[in-house]
Write a structure and sequence with these properties.
The termini are far apart. The chain is an alpha/beta fold. The chain has 3 domains: 91 residues, Ubiquitin-like (UB roll) (Roll); 96 residues, Elongation Factor Tu (Ef-tu), domain 3 (Beta Barrel); 125 residues, Nucleotide-binding domain of ferredoxin-NADP reductase (FNR) module (Rossmann fold). The chain is globular, with a radius of gyration of 24 Å. 24% of the residues lie in helices and 29% in strands. It binds flavin-adenine dinucleotide and FE2/S2 (inorganic) cluster (FES). The site of FE2/S2 (inorganic) cluster has 13 residues, from loops.
C-alpha cells in the first residue's frame, strides 16, 4: 500500500473543508446581516444560526420551553415583509391565520438574510437572572419546591401565572417552569418541579440540585396570567405541578381581598399526590368566596378519602353550573387541559375567558 495514501486523503479532506467554508462565506452564511425588531431596534449578526439562538446571543429572549426541539411551540415570532414557507416541524403549532400573518417558530427559522421581525414589547424586557438556590423541599414523592434567591438583578417583576426558564448547568438544556410564589415577593421566585423519568432538566433538579447552587433563570414570559381588571367569578383547574401558577394567582387574589368567587379544582390520583392541602383549606376558611376542591381519581383504601372522587373532568361537570359569565385558568398536561376545556364549553364558557398553560 502506498505509504502516502493516508496523507493524500487527509489533504483532500482539508481542501474540501476549506472550499465548503469559502462557499458558505460567498453565499452569505458568514456575512453581516441585520435583524430589525419592531421597526426600530437593529441587531447586527454574523453566521446563519436560528433566530432563537441569534436573538439570545444578543440578550433578546424568546421563550423556548423545549430548548429548540420543535416540541413546545412557545418560541413563536412574526416575520414582516418576505415570509418563507412553513417547515413541517412548525406546522403542528401554527394556525392558518398565524401562517398567513407570518408567525413562525424562532427555533426553526435561520437568519440567512436581513430580517424584519415583530415581537411583543413584554419580551424585550425578559432577561437573565443570576440566582442561588435557597430552598429545596419535597412537596410529594415526585414534586419539589425550589426557591431561587435573585442575585443579579436582585428583584423581578412578574405577573401571577407567568413562567421563567431554567438553564441546566453543564448541558445545553433550557426548560420552562411556572412561578409559584407571590409576585409581591420580588427578591425570590419559587417553582414546583415534577420529576419526569429520564427527563433531562427534572433529573438534574431532583437528583443533583442543592441549596447554594448557582442557577441562571431567564424571563419572565407568558400570556397566561390573572386578568386583574375583570370582576368575573373564576374557575381554576390544575393537575400535578400545574398547581404552581394557580398558587401565584391565589396569592394575588388574596392580596386583592378575594372579592371574586373562586372555585379551585385540583385533580390527583391518590392522597400521596396532594400537597399544600392545609394552605388551601386555610384560605377557604379565611375567605368564604374561595372553595378548594381536590378530586382523587384512584384513591387507595388506606387513604380513607371522603372528598370528591372521579376524573377531574367528571367532578368539574358535576360541580359547576352555567359558566357564561366566568373566567377559567387551567394548568397541567395538554390532555387534561383539552378534556377540561370541553367540559367548560359544555357549560357555555366564552372562549375569550379561558386562559391556560399546557405543560408540554
Ligand atoms: C409554559 C410551561 C410551563 C411549565 N411549567 C412547569 C411547572 O411549573 N412544573 C413542571 O414540573 N413542569 C412544567 N413544565 C414542563 C417543563 O417545561 C418540562 O417540559 C418538564 O419538566 C420535562 O423536562 P425534562 O427536561 O425533565 O424532560 P425532557 O428531557 O424534555 O423529556 C424526557 C421525556 O419525557 C417526556 N416528557 C416531557 N415532559 C413530560 C411530562 N410533563 N410528563 C410526561 N412525560 C414528559 C418527553 O416527551 C421525553 O420523551 C412547563 C412547560 C411549559 C411549556
Ligand atoms: S423552542 Fe420549543 S418549539 Fe421552538
Amino acid at each position: 500500500m502506498n505509504l502516502f495514501l493516508p496523507l493524500i486523503i487527509f489533504g483532500i479532506l482539508i481542501l474540501i473543508t476549506g472550499l465548503l467554508i469559502l462557499l458558505d462565506y460567498v453565499l452569505g452564511g458568514s456575512s453581516q446581516k441585520t435583524i430589525t425588531i419592531n421597526g426600530d431596534t437593529q441587531i447586527v449578526v454574523y453566521g446563519d444560526d436560528t433566530v432563537l439562538s441569534t436573538l439570545a446571543q444578543n440578550k433578546v429572549f424568546i421563550p423556548s420551553a423545549c430548548g429548540g426541539k420543535a416540541t413546545c411551540g412557545t418560541c413563536k415570532f412574526r416575520l414582516v415583509g418576505d415570509v418563507p414557507g412553513v417547515k413541517p416541524t412548525e406546522q403542528p403549532f401554527l394556525s392558518p391565520k398565524e401562517v398567513e400573518d407570518g408567525v413562525r417558530l424562532s427555533c426553526q427559522q435561520k437568519v440567512t438574510e436581513n430580517m424584519q421581525i415583530a415581537l411583543p414589547s413584554q419580551l424585550l424586557s425578559a432577561r437573565d437572572f443570576e440566582t442561588v438556590v435557597e430552598v429545596v423541599e419535597d412537596l410529594t414523592y415526585d414534586i419539589k419546591l425550589i426557591r431561587f434567591k435573585l442575585i443579579e438583578p436582585s428583584t423581578v417583576d412578574f405577573k401571577p401565572g407567568q413562567f421563567m426558564q431554567i438553564k441546566v448547568p453543564g448541558i445545553d438544556v433550557v426548560r420552562a417552569y411556572s412561578l409559584a410564589s407571590n409576585p409581591s415577593e420580588k427578591s425570590y421566585v419559587e417553582m414546583m418541579i415534577r420529576y419526569v423519568p429520564n427527563g433531562q432538566a427534572t433529573t438534574f433538579v431532583h437528583k443533583a440540585l442543592e441549596v447554594g447552587d448557582k442557577i441562571t433563570l431567564t424571563g419572565p414570559f407568558g400570556d397566561f396570567f390573572l386578568q386583574e381588571n375583570s370582576d368575573k367569578p373564576i374557575i381554576c383547574i390544575a393537575g400535578g405541578s400545574g398547581k404552581a401558577p394557580i398558587r401565584s394567582i391565589l396569592f394575588r387574589l388574596k392580596e386583592l381581598g378575594m372579592n371574586r368567587k373562586v372555585k379551585y379544582f385540583f385533580g390527583a390520583r391518590a392522597v400521596r399526590d396532594l400537597y399544600y392541602t392545609e394552605e388551601f383549606n386555610q384560605l377557604s376558611k379565611e375567605f368564604p368566596n374561595f372553595e378548594y376542591i381536590p378530586a382523587l381519581s384512584e384513591p387507595l383504601e388506606e387513604d380513607h378519602w371522603k372528598g370528591a372522587t372521579g376524573l377531574i373532568t367528571d367532578v368539574l361537570d358535576r360541580m359547576v353550573g352555567d359558566l357564561s359569565n366566568h373566567e377559567a385558568y387551567l394548568c397541567g398536561s395538554p390532555g387534561m387541559i383539552n378534556a377540561c376545556i370541553n367540559v367548560l364549553n359544555k357549560h357555555d364558557i366564552k372562549q375569550e375567558n379561558v386562559y391556560y398553560d399546557k405543560f408540554s
